[in-house]
UniProtKB/TrEMBL annotation:
Transmembrane segments: none
Keywords assigned by UniProt, alphabetized: Transferase
Catalytic center residues: 251, 306
BP term (GO), one: carbohydrate metabolic process
Alphabetized CDD domains for the sequence: BsCS-I_like
UniProt-recorded name of the protein: Citrate synthase
Domain of life: Bacteria
Family: Belongs to the citrate synthase family.
Molecular function in Gene Ontology: citrate synthase activity
Catalytic activity: oxaloacetate + acetyl-CoA + H2O = citrate + CoA + H(+)
């Protein structure tokens, strides 16, 4: 028996491919690392939804379509306003997305529905975040692309180019990652011939769990404690010698360097000198990899995407509460691509279970 369905092939997909032993991540036949460093968010989303790179006209149409869905309808603002103050952001996104599921989302799922959800989720996050902070709502800026507008709506200020670039790279790298728990949840829901909004709501509920979409607060705390490049080696050696884990190193899928971490490292190097926090992260990652190889030879412990996600989020002044929601704002592209793919060749998911309880005596 394969607990948790580990190792069981549940579907065929043309959306992405992962080779954990070689450290490869592929989006629609393209190296995801190159996509992250060379594409915009809109271009990468188009690739995942349509299976090909967009031309300039197609890219412009997609950018306009995403912009057209940024504005929150009044009824959705009212719903968000009435939610409990202590409901976390993932709960708010889940509730808001489910409330979007009107008749236009009925079977079968479409790319237009995917674009609508992708366009509005950053606005949901920004509206709720500013509301809780007693700050005024910031309307979308039609002159900005998807990622830049997200930062703008969160802060009310024009974001720095280095911050836009770093966050865009991160969000492209988290668009899609195979048959993970939330993607499987979305595919199971749509396999019943439910609707796109319900399938994405299922995925958000799954992402909310700390075993899947947990915030990299441990990495942030580690970098906060290290404080400077001069303190790094002594701090790291003490942690390793005390048998403590270095947060943000090692991955249960990738047995070599996480390609997403590689791309984020390259982006951090590109903007290094523009942000001291990213400079510190680069130094710590290089030093930690060296020390882990020294103290734990053969373990192949490298920085994972969580390490650089923490560095990027801290550099752009996002607190930990925004990590999983931001992850969600990008992963909705992958979820929706899988929902559409599942619907095109649909078979309802209906696995068996093994009964281990008591049986009565039958006559």
């Amino acid at each position: 028996m394969n607990q948790g369905l580990k190792g069981i092939v549940a579907a065929q997909t043309a959306i992405s491919y992962i080779d954990g032993n070689k450290g490869h991540l592929v989006y629609r036949g393209f190296d995801a690392k190159k996509i992250a460093l060379e594409f915009s968010f809109e271009e990468a989303a188009y690739l995942l939804w349509y299976g090909q790179k967009p031309n300039q006209a197609q890219l412009a149409d997609l950018a306009d379509a995403l912009k057209s869905h940024r504005t929150l309808p009044g009824y959705l603002m009212d719903i968000i306003d009435t939610l409990p103050q202590d409901m976390d952001l993932m709960g708010v996104i889940r509730t808001a997305v489910s409330a979007l599921g009107d008749a236009s989302f009925e079977w079968m799922p479409t790319t237009e529905q995917a674009i609508k959800l992708t366009g509005i989720i950053p606005s949901i996050i920004a509206y709720r975040k500013r509301k809780l902070a007693n700050k005024p709502y910031v309307a979308p800026n039609e002159e900005l692309n998807h990622v830049a507008n997200y930062l703008y709506m969160l802060t009310g200020e024009m974001p720095l180019p280095a911050h836009i670039s770093a966050l865009e790279t991160y969000m492209i790298l988290t668009l899609e990652h195979g048959m993970n728990a939330s993607t499987f949840s979305a595919r199971v829901t749509i396999s019943t011939e439910s609707d796109m909004a319900s399938a994405v709501t299922s995925a958000i509920g799954t992402m909310k769990g700390p075993l899947h979409g947990g915030a990299p607060s441990g990495v942030t705390q580690m970098l906060n404690d290290i404080k400077s490049e001069e303190r790094a080696e002594k701090w790291l050696r003490e942690k390793i010698e005390n048998g403590e884990r270095l947060m943000g190193f090692g991955h249960r899928v990738y047995k070599t360097t996480d390609p997403r971490a590689e791309a984020l490292r390259e982006k951090a190097m590109e903007v290094s000198g523009q942000d001291k926090w990213l400079d510190l992260a680069l130094h710590v990652e290089k030093l930690a990899a060296k020390l882990l190889a020294e103290y734990k030879p053969g373990r192949n412990l490298y920085a994972n995407v969580e390490f650089y996600a923490a560095a990027v989020m801290r550099a752009i002044d996002m607190d930990d509460a925004l990590f999983t929601p931001t992850f969600t704002a990008s992963r909705v592209v992958g979820w929706s691509a899988h929902v559409i793919e599942q619907a095109e060749h649909n078979t309802i998911f209906r696995p068996n279970s093994e009964y281990i309880g008591h049986l009565p005596e039958f006559e």
